[in-house]
Amino acid sequence: MQGWRIAFVVAGLLAAYGVLAYGILPAIWTHHEHQPGLALRPMVTRTKQGIPGDPLNIGLVGTRNDVLQAMHAAGWFPADPVTLRSSIAIIGSVLLDRPYKEAPVSDLYYDGRREDLAFEKLAGTSAKARNHVRFWLVEDTGAEGRPVWLGAATFDRSVGLSHLTGQVTHHIAPDIDAVRSLLAADLEKAGRVQAIYQVSGIGPTLHGRNGEGDAYYTDGEIWMLRLVPSTEKDVSTPMMLAPPLLVRLKDAVWHRLAAMFRG
User: Fold this and answer.
1) Can you spell out the DSSP letters for 152-198?
2) Which among 66, 78, 171, 262 has the fewest CB atoms less than 10 Å away?
3) What is the pTM of this model?
4) Residue 248 and residue 64: Cα distance in Å, rounded?
5) Are 156 and 54 in contact (CB under 8 A)?
6) H helices of 54-120, where?
């Protein structure tokens, strides 16, 4: 009789484990319900040589014109294409410490193609230090009936040699979540955001390396911003769609860890 009881308890524990591990917890952690088309996509860009680059950490929902008008209103400038003239101009900006608000950014690739749009916001008097973001159009019609863009936002803190190739390049600051927050705040202040929510990105990462060998850390979430259509008036308070409970708990723990990294 004792053996039957033990078997019954073991069977109950196994059943509970199965429900928890293969049902409840995956359902709680999964928060792609706002944009299910992103669930199986890679969440890291690549360099031209195929080296993993900057992770995706921000997204926009809206037409190309919505994006252009929103970024303009937020004070972010479109990056010039890489040409001989723009390359000479950015060298002059860095060496002579003079402004170049539309300085070009190097190409990164996603889905085998370079970025569709790139924007920047200077953090000093020259292009040596700047916030910048690259965007790729990944869905012509997402779950909300509008185009979906994914982006990689980082902060260029200095100019130096790539740790991997030896080429002259910008080095990024490790806290890439800070740039994501800055861009989201700028768009919100400009009244260009209807709603903000998260989808899963690369996942929590403490010791990431981008295509130049620069270290980064991130909570691994992508902040999605549904933009105000360019044909409509600005809104003042965007709707915040909270992530699932376990994701919120993970984010709270992560923010404490990130504070320790910054300190």
Assistant:
1) EEEEEEEEEE-TTT--EEEEE-SBHHHHHHHHHHHHHHTT-EEEEEE
2) 262
3) 0.81
4) 31
5) no
6) 64-73, 84-96
